[in-house]
Design a protein that fits this description.
The chain is of the alpha+beta class. The protein has two domains: 179 residues, no CATH class; 94 residues, Homeodomain-like (Arc Repressor Mutant, subunit A, Orthogonal Bundle). Helices cover 44% and strands 21% of the residues. The strands form two sheets. A six-stranded mixed beta sheet has the order 1-6-3-8-9-10. The protein is globular and about 55 Å long.
Length: 293
């Protein structure tokens, strides 16, 4: 698929949705704690909008201490606040369009997911991806704050639908007019790998081999690619992400150190403690005590 067709396909989906926006209420995940499920859960640091394009997506998360399962019907919008978890549990194939909004870039992708296999894995792949260094600015920030407002508006769900419609319209304008980041084949692969890792770093079974299989590359190719771009190997890169994320969870006293290790994809507590001390000069317990004190 060419870069031009990626932009055109994404713009066609966005404009198609805008011509007939869904009247179903926006699903808002504002707290989104990690579910106690064996299936991989995905942590999203940035605010994110997801539009179901075809088929119905099923998800689970934890809101206000209670497990919350919901379906995302075709045309319906999901809003994920920053630093939230979600766990897809698809019972049928579906396509979705995801919009990641950051102050320094905007990224839009179309994904295809198949129904969950008996072993809990969910086959998926990119159908299109587009990224620009342009952002929505203060207008977009304001709309995101309104979407994340926990105080129900007087007009109820219709208000959140309107906020999401305006945001999606703004994104469509960026896709149509903004300059895309340099998109050599190597750049596309690098951005895709980073996006894939951002969705899977908390999975304890995540590995270089799984990433290589997803992108139809040899594991050694992935290793060389990471060393070329980061001067780190794949494992060190993923561990750095996990260790940085662990700082946030250590600030939450509801989680003990073992919980934090598990949340961040470490299956061996002693290995987590050793990596943490090497990276930050303190054990996780010492870090927590200093932060609390």
């Amino acid at each position: 698929m060419t870069v031009k067709s990626d932009r055109e396909n994404i713009l066609r989906e966005l404009n198609g949705w805008l011509s007939s926006p869904s009247t179903r209420p926006v699903v808002r995940i504002l707290e989104g704690k990690r579910p106690a499920k064996e299936q991989p859960s995905y942590f999203k640091e940035e605010p994110r909008l997801v539009i179901a394009l075809e088929g119905t997506g099923r998800y689970i998360t934890i809101e206000h201490g209670k497990e919350m399962m919901f379906d995302l019907a075709p045309g319906q919008v999901l809003y994920l606040a920053p630093c939230t978890w979600s766990c897809p549990l698809p019972e049928m194939p579906y396509r979705s369009l995801a919009i990641t909004l950051r102050p320094d870039f905007t990224r839009v992708t179309i994904h295809s997911r198949k129904a969950m296999r008996k072993n809990g894995t969910i086959p998926w792949r990119y159908l299109a991806e587009w990224q620009t260094s342009a952002a929505l600015g203060s207008r977009g920030d304001h709309l995101l704050k309104l979407l994340a407002d926990s105080t129900p508006p007087r007009l109820g769900a219709r208000t959140y639908n309107l906020y999401s419609e305006i945001l999606i319209s703004e994104v469509a304008g960026l896709v149509e007019d903004a300059t895309e980041l340099g998109r050599s084949h190597e750049t596309i692969l690098w951005h895709s790998l980073c996006d894939y890792i951002s969705a899977h770093w908390s999975d304890p079974d995540f590995s270089r081999e799984k990433a290589a299989e997803f992108f139809n590359r040899h594991p050694n190719h992935i290793s060389r690619f990471f060393h070329q771009h980061t001067r780190q190997n794949f494992r060190a890169y993923v561990n750095e992400i996990r260790l940085k994320r662990s700082l946030q969870f250590l600030g939450d006293l509801r989680y003990n150190v073992t919980d934090v290790a598990n949340l961040c994809g470490f299956t061996n507590l002693q290995y987590f403690i050793r990596c943490f001390r090497q990276r930050f000069g303190l054990t996780p317990g010492e870090y927590r005590k200093r932060r609390v004190d």
